[in-house]
Design brief:
This protein is mainly beta. Helices cover 6% and strands 39% of the residues. The chain has two helices and twelve strands. A six-stranded antiparallel barrel has the order 1-2-11-10-7-12. It has a four-stranded antiparallel beta sheet with strand order 5-4-3-6, with no helix packed on it. Strands 8-9 form a two-stranded antiparallel ribbon. The longest helix has 7 residues. It is extended. The protein starts with 9 loop residues before the first strand and ends with a strand.
């Protein structure tokens, strides 16, 4: 299990999407992310906390409550704190800055965020159901989910059945996005493709395990 956690990640904020000229001369859609700078706020060890991890802070908070002030000390008003499991904590110290320089162009990253909320949605939009027949008198069944019941066995609606309901606003991870640009001077990270969430939403960026 120790080799599972290879490298720490960064906390960032989604700026938006744009286009850049790719290697083949065409236009590639990329997502711009304000990744860091982050500060190590706590180093957890197997001997003390029972596992090895590094807690990282990002963003500026307007105010902190007393427990938060006691935890952060002189590190400043950090708004977001996230924890990363690592295999070796000896190279990290409290107060250590981390920036987007840990990534390079060509690296593959996994990005986690909260997807956009879509509100209440039907089964066609939420789960891509085909809907009912469009002919033979079915005038009001075009976007209906169909029967939700089973036969005598089990004689009930199964738990977890795909139905209409709240769509989006869930934690989503997109794997193996390629880094196009990593600019530590501007804390800017460009990755090819889209990432979860709306503009200014919080993102967690980690190096993919399979490079």
């Amino acid at each position: 299990m120790a080799d599972r956690y290879i490298m720490i990640g960064l906390i960032g904020k989604k700026i938006g999407m744009t286009q850049v000229v790719g290697e083949n001369g065409g236009l590639d859609a990329v997502t711009a992310i304000e990744a860091g700078p982050c500060i190590v706020t706590q180093v957890k060890t197997l001997a003390k906390e029972g596992y090895d991890a590094v807690q990282v802070g990002f963003g500026l908070a307007k105010r902190l409550n007393s427990p938060e002030k006691g935890h952060l000390g002189k590190l400043g008003l950090l708004k977001y704190l996230r924890e990363f499991r690592v295999s070796d904590v000896t190279s990290y110290q409290k107060g250590q800055p981390l920036d987007v320089g840990v990534f390079q162009a060509g690296d593959l990253v996994d990005i986690t965020g909260v997807s956009k909320g879509k509100g209440f949605a039907g089964a066609v939009k939420r789960h891509h159901f085909a809907g009912g027949p469009k002919t033979h008198g079915q005038s009001d069944r075009h976007r209906a989910p169909g029967s939700i019941g089973s036969t005598t066995t089990p004689g009930r609606v199964l738990k977890g059945l795909r139905m209409a309901g709240h769509m989006g606003q869930e934690q989503v991870t997109v794997h193996h996005l390629r880094v196009v640009t990593a600019d530590p001077a501007r804390s800017l990270l460009l990755v090819k493709g889209g990432v979860p969430g709306s503009r200014n939403s919080l993102l967690i960026i980690r190096k993919s395990r399979a490079q």
